[in-house]
Amino acid sequence: MRKWISLLGLLLTGAVADGQNYSLQIGNVTWSGSPGGYNCFNNTAYPNTVNFTITKLVTGTKSYAVTAGPSGNSGNYTRRLASGANTLNYQIYTSSAMSYVLEAPPTANSHQVISGSSNAGRRTVIPLSLTFYIPPSQLVPPGTYSDLITMSIFNSYNDNGAPQATATIQFSAIVAPTAILCLVPTGSSFNSSSTSQTLNFGTLAQGQILGCDLLVLKNTSCTVSFNSANLGVLKTTPVATSDQIPYTCTVNGTVLNLATTASLTLPSGVSTSQDGTRLPVTITIGNLGYPAAGNYSDIITVTVTVQ
Q1: What is the pTM of this model?
Q2: Using one digit for the tens of pLDDT, what is the confidence trace for 110-125?
Q3: How many CA atoms lie less than 13 Å away from 55 in the CB half-sphere?
Q4: Within 13 Å, how many C-alpha atoms sit on residue 99's CB side?
Q5: Which one of 3.30.450.40, 2.60.40.1090, 1.10.8.10, 2.60.40.10 gives the CATH number of domain 22-175?
């Protein structure tokens, strides 16, 4: 009897597809500048360096171009953080020199991406950085401002293909409720270094009037408080005696009771003038009576507090 033996061969074939060369590691970014958040009245610039990494996934020499897309709020590269209807201008730069805005194909040129190449092995982590910058002195209400940016890795700045890796990143900043004040001669402009004024009446007489301006810059509602060292009267100096001379302090048309802490509440909202809210201050000398000869003075301390 013959036996027939049939042999079947099973051929298994396959190929490893070309995968991405790099992966991207970056999380949401919160601006860190002046303590307490973004201060509208601090004119110091605080460029933030944001460190992130990409990881090489293959062997051989591979190039990369890290990009950032348009602002989710503006739809273009004039980037804006937003809190409701309020916006805060900002920008993302390729380096701390802030010479080139970080963009993406098809608009990016060779300077507007973070590019390089690596011949290292797989799983090599490459540290990179960008600069997150919010220009100072933008007058906006307090709140949390944010924007969504698509960051990607391409082979090059002019790569028209699909990105190798993509991440949607939230850039944000907290704008602090802030108010500042200054005391200036009547009619003068805001001057943050002008924190005191001396009103010298010379030889005192009833009815004399001198004044200055109190200017308040704010991005929210605030209270301005007035505290008199002598509780609203002039006393002898340098050593106070029982002699005293009354006076009246009027701020923006309101007579203050300086026998205790006096205060004025300013409405909410952002200052619309570069000089802020102007509050004229006038001091009127009252009835002298029969005080002893000498020099008389008082000090009024003015404080602004945000609500």
Answers
A1: 0.83
A2: 999 999 999 999 999 9
A3: 7
A4: 7
A5: 2.60.40.1090
